[in-house]
DNA sequence: AGAGGACATTCAGGAAACCTTCAGACGGCG
DNA sequence: CGCCGTCTGAAGGTTTCCTGAATGTCCTCT
């Protein structure tokens, strides 16, 4: 699943609140595997109880809940002195005014249906900005390939690269799992929205696009000689894809 | 999330006084995240107690409170020797004479409904004038683009630029977050009033206005040659907007 | 070597995101 | 009261992206 560079500082505690079991499980599995400690709640009232008991570092909160809606839950726990940032889950067709004011403070939101990469990226961005952690670096590196999660910049050997949103998400997922083979199914599940109905063949197309932009470059050395960059994206036939600095 | 240049001197302590929980939360979340230490009070009497106890550097005070009004609160705490500046929150339809005399000393006011940028900008301006801090610079720079928070002047390559109030707030928010992509929702939440009910599409319009004034200029060099300025505002498709000196 | 399967590449249509402009509404100011 | 700058919503045009399909290439097993 979404295995990250588990190295990152202390593991954060996250509470997931959603009434749909499938969404809950999806998030729990991913986040747990990504190294977070996860608790869940299926309703607003349960959420308040769980949050006050466990004092999480971050809360993932569906705004549409059977009993108490997400905004009210937020207000209640804030009154109790809990100031953990909230990542709201909203339906795309929610009226705009409902979404208003959601991005103040450390809070943020994603619209359903989301892709896991979106959620994980947002969580990291929030935690990076919220926690005191001075050492937190918005840059992810694999060899001479870098992506900056703040500016969304991508560079190879210092040279800027332009990626489309989906290309960026795919590359980010690969880099987050450097040295680990990811199946096409895994990639589909993380980079594309969870309600995607299409074919896994689209992964091949996007790998191809990515390779052309990232691995098919010529750079000029200090001494003026041109040479191709080392390809970083490897195909593991029958298994999937992986990114890493190739072994000699 | 405003005032991101967290680097700024020592964190100031602020007391927020308002009887509406939603306003309180909005301000607490934003200011806390912006690096301020925040306490709250929901009434005039509570305000006096909290202010005398915590000795804040600045007070945000709604003039319309259920028990003791804001002016009286100010008078009382002044009698107790507390001279922290006050940022008053007033209703737009408050008669002019009520607002009169609010800006004496270090004090200032904003009208409800406000935008977060307005509040944060005023807070910074007040603290800049109040504190000894010699190193505080009212000028924000990105490349050859400068805005002066004291005079509200905007210049590009030395040339003055006229901006409308909303254009200025938008530019200021972008520059305060140089090199970080801001979503349209974030921009809406910070630059527009918190009770805004409209569409996020308005952000696109204002980005367009801003570009025409800021990024679509011709300047004349010392040697008489004309050339276009580098565009500083970048679109990150599917993510948002960002300002910075472009890479290479 | 050949067949079959897995992967790579390319392309075009449609969709989505974005840019720009404009007219009307609104409010401040003379 | 009328003018003027500003704000807002909407429309139209443009660019970029996504997706599915078609075709080509490489690997593997027999």
TrEMBL record, chains A, B:
Molecular function GO terms recorded: phosphorelay response regulator activity; transcription cis-regulatory region binding
InterPro entries in UniProt: CheY-like_superfamily (IPR011006), OmpR/PhoB-type_DNA-bd (IPR001867), Sig_transdc_resp-reg_C-effctor (IPR016032), Sig_transdc_resp-reg_receiver (IPR001789), WalR-like (IPR039420), WH-like_DNA-bd_sf (IPR036388)
Pfam family, one: Trans_reg_C
DNA-binding region: 137-245
Chain positions found as 4-aspartylphosphate: 62
Residue ranges of domain OmpR/PhoB-type in the record: 137-245
Entry keywords, A to Z: DNA-binding, Phosphoprotein, Transcription, Transcription regulation, Two-component regulatory system
PROSITE patterns associated with the record: OMPR_PHOB, RESPONSE_REGULATORY
GO cellular component: cytosol; protein-DNA complex
GO biological process: regulation of DNA-templated transcription
Keyword Phosphoprotein: yes
Domain Response regulatory: 13-127
Protein name from the UniProt record: Alkaline phosphatase
Organism: Bifidobacterium italicum
């Amino acid at each position: 699943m979404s295995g990250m560079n588990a190295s990152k500082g202390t593991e954060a505690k996250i509470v997931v609140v959603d009434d749909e079991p499938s969404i809950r499980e999806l998030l729990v599995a991913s986040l747990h595997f990504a190294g977070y400690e996860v608790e869940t709640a299926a309703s607003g009232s349960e959420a308040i109880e769980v949050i006050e008991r466990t004092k999480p570092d971050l809360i993932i909160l569906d705004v549409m809940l059977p009993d108490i809606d997400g905004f009210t839950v937020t207000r209640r726990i804030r009154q109790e002195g809990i100031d953990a940032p909230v990542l709201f889950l909203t339906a795309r067709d929610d009226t705009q005014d409902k979404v208003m004011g959601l991005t103040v403070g450390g809070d943020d939101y994603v619209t359903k249906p989301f892709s896991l990469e979106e959620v994980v990226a947002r969580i990291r961005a929030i935690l990076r900005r919220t926690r005191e952690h001075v050492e937190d670096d918005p840059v992810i590196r694999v060899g001479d390939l870098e992506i900056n999660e703040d500016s969304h910049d991508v560079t190879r050997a210092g040279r800027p690269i332009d990626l489309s949103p989906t290309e960026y998400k795919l590359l980010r997922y690969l880099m987050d799992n450097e040295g680990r083979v990811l199946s096409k199914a895994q990639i589909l599940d993380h980079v594309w929205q969870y309600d995607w109905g299409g074919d896994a063949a689209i992964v091949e197309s996007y790998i191809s696009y990515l390779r052309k932009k990232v691995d098919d470059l010529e750079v000029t050395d200090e001494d003026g000689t041109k040479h191709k960059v080392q390809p970083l994206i490897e195909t593991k036939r029958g298994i999937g894809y992986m990114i890493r600095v190739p072994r000699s």
